[in-house]
Amino acid sequence: xxxxxxxxxxxxxxxxxxxxxxxxxxxxxxxxxxxxxxxxxxxxxxxxxxxxxxxxxxxxxxxxxxxxxxxxxxxxxxxxxxxxxxxxxxxxxxxxxxxxxxxxxxxxxxxxxxxxxxxxxxxxxxxxxxxxxxxxxxxxxxxxxxxxxxxxxxxxxxxxxxxxxxxxxxxxxxxxxxxxxxxxxxxxxxxxxxxxxxxxxxxxxxxxxxxxxxxxxxxxxxxxxxxxxxxxxxxxxxxxxxxxxxxxxxxxxxxxxxxxxxxxxxxxxxxxxxxxxxxxxxxxxxxxxxxxxxxxxxxxxxxxxxxxxx
Length: 310
Known about the structure:
The protein has about 300 residues and is mainly alpha-helical.
């Protein structure tokens, strides 16, 4: 009898604890509910409408043409050579920008990690490009640096006898990449610099005592400790760079032809110049899904590296 009573009391205590923990959980989540509702309203509801539009054949230039076509728009965009070219350009811009920006960021971070006179001023000057608005950045590069008549780049190459080059017309992808790398290098530099200043000094001192030179210490000690910071920089940079629009619109307008158009710019052309809402929506859905998949895989890799004990 006593055993049954104890069992009943234990069950009641467990139910009471669960209810208390559930109430405590809702009390903690309560202040976050308005932000969650706002996020759903401004992001998920428009995305659901975009999915619905992607299943329609709807061109604003033909009133009354709206009709349900299922997955036909998705089949058409994957058969579109311009879409495949824009997707390739998106990959080139993202990988090229992230790679060179991270490489330069590591170099500048290593230089700024050492004490020298004027280091504060040098840090400020190197951070400045990241604070410049993308529109101003694009105009600076297209007008002041890459202009075929009076640009700084042609003046520099003219000093060694190279004839002027119309950069944005002859080399549009390279021109956009230079602008993107200039903008994103400070961001990568700050992340790597934070990692350099967070590494334990006793490990570096032990490497010096063991006779390891600067290069070996950097490759075998510093770089492994910077892995998490580098991975985070690559992930965040890729997410932002894949959505590049300002540089392409202002520097090349996607040209010549569509040679420098990436996916966001091509979607803009189809939606606001061709007024093809159905296919533009289908492209947007594909880009969002692909970005989510890549970001999820990258986040899992990063979190796995954080879970590994040093």
